[in-house]
Every structure is written in structure tokens, then in C-alpha cells.
Amino acid sequence: MSTEPPQPQPEASLPEDGYTFPLERRPRRTGDKRVELREAVAKKYVEDTTSSIRSLAEEFDASFGLIRNLLLEAKVELRSGRRRKAAGK
After folding, report:
1. Can you tell me the distance from the alpha carbon of 26 to that of 3, in angstroms, rounded to the nearest whole number?
2. For a disulfide at 29, which of 19, 34, 36, 39, Cβ 3.0-4.6 Å?
3. What number of other Cβ atoms are within 10 A of residue 45's Cβ?
4. Mapping DSSP to helix (H, G, I), strand (E, B) and coil, where does residue 25 land?
5. What's residue 43's pLDDT?
6. pLDDT at residue 41, rounded to an integer
7. Is 84:74 a contact under the CB 8 Å cutoff?
8. Alpha carbon separation from 3 to 6, 8, 9, 10 (Å, rounded)
9. What is the pTM of this model?
């Protein structure tokens, strides 16, 4: 082990555009809350064919990755991210 004292960390500065990151993280969804969220997300994704993973993430205040994982846990077949054009267009 090193006996040197820890070096001070440089102070963080705000970016020039003024954008700051959220100070608090979203709560972890575990247990019964996760099951309820999974069921709600899966139902909405299956019933509303216009909804995307991104739109569900925004609606449920969750990350894209969480919503995708919940859909996979619920054994929902994910739609392609690319929409087919209608014939003749």
C-alpha cells in the first residue's frame, strides 16, 4: 500500500453551452415495482403499434436500455427500428 496522501481532484467546470447533468440518478426498479413496470411497458408496446422504445422511455421516465430489457424480459418480440414504406410511395 502507498503511504502517499490522495491527490486533490480538479474542480469540475460547466461546459460552455451551460448544459449540466442531472444531479440525481433515477431510482432502481426492482422487485414488485419492476414487475409492474414490465407489464405496463409490454402492454403498451404490444397494443400501440406506433409506440417506440424511445417514446416509452420518455413516457415512463426510464432509459432506453431499461425499457428494452423489460420488453425482452417480458418475451415481447421487438419491432424493427426501421419502418417499411407503403407500396407505391
Report:
1. 37
2. 34
3. 22
4. coil
5. 97
6. 96
7. no
8. 9, 15, 18, 21
9. 0.64
Residue ranges of alpha helices (H) inside 1-89 are: 31-47, 53-59, 64-73
CA distance 76 to 41: 10
pLDDT of residue 22: 58
Q: How many CA atoms lie within 13 A of 37 on its CB side?
A: 22
Q: Read off the C-alpha cell for 34.
A: 419492476
Give the Cα separation of 59 and 14 in Å (integer). Answer: 29
Name residues of the chain where pLDDT drops below 70.
1-3, 7-23, 82-89
Q: Which amino acid makes up residue 6? A: P
CA 68 vs CA 9, 35, 43, 84: distances in Å:
36, 14, 13, 21
d(C-alpha 70, C-alpha 34), whole Å: 8
What pLDDT is stored for residue 59 in this prediction? 94
